[in-house]
Amino acid sequence: MSSTDILNLFSSQTIGTSSIPTVLFSIVLAFAVGLGIAAVYRLNFRGVMYSSNFTLTLVLMTLITTPVVMCIRESIQLSMGMVGALSIVRFRTAVKDPLDTAYMFWALTMGILLGAGQFLLTAVSGVAIAVLITLVCKWRAKSQNSYLLVLRMTDAAERQAAQVVNGIRFQRLRTKTVSQGAIEATYEVRLDKTEPLLKRLHDIPGMQDATLVAYTGEGA
């Protein structure tokens, strides 16, 4: 077989009704959309440990889903075979934040739409979802200033510290450890300003340490 025959063979190949330029365009577009999803995730991330691997996973999920859907969208046999193959896959990596699952489904949905050739629907839904997620995350960040207040103090300081903490509109005792001559208590609190509370606590005689840690509520 000559080089001309090989070039003609590849140039004549189609996947369903999709030509090779369309396939390449869809894959490049999927990569761009995946980067957009990753950018939205990074912009709105409010956790403690940011994972660059998960961000890369979002890009790869969009990128990989697109050619798979392009391959099976017009073949019932391939569709059934893909369902059977995926049914035996077991994912053992736990998703720590439930919101991360939503980003994964978003990436899969964009890949499916691109693979189905729904470019307009991909653009409209992708932009709409990105805007809505950003607005919701901004509102959530402003409305929920939640912290974990960790107090280490002597027995004599417990009563005054409890009076200060009870003055907070929202507060809930999480843990309390009592040892000989020392007490460690952890509260979930919601505050607009942190400095006044910390100053009042540090002014209490016998207060050894008062620490505020940003709290998202996962694992509660």
Q: What descriptors fit this protein?
A:
membrane, 4-stranded antiparallel sheet, single chain, alpha+beta, 8 helices, transmembrane, 220 residues
Task: Describe the protein.
The chain has 220 residues and is of the alpha+beta class. The chain is 57% helix and 15% strand. The protein has eight helices and four strands, in the order ααααααβαββαβ.
Write a short abstract of this structure.
Pfam families: DUF4956. With 220 residues, this protein is an alpha+beta fold.
Share of helix, binned: 55-70%
Mean pLDDT: 79
Q: What is the terminal-to-terminal distance?
A: 66 Å
- Proportion of residues in extended strands: 15-25%
Helix count, DSSP H or I runs of 4 or more residues: 8
Stretches with pLDDT under 50, minimum 5 residues? 9-16
Shape: elongated
Radius of gyration: 27 Å
Give the helix/strand layout.
Layout: H1 3-11, H2 20-43, H3 52-72, H4 76-86, H5 98-115, H6 119-143, E1 146-153, H7 158-166, E2 171-179, E3 182-190, H8 195-202, E4 207-214
Antiparallel strand pairs: 1-3, 1-4, 2-3
Helix pairs in contact: 2-3, 2-5, 2-6, 3-5, 5-6
Transmembrane segments: 20-41, 53-76, 103-136
InterPro entries: DUF4956
Keywords: Membrane, Transmembrane, Transmembrane helix
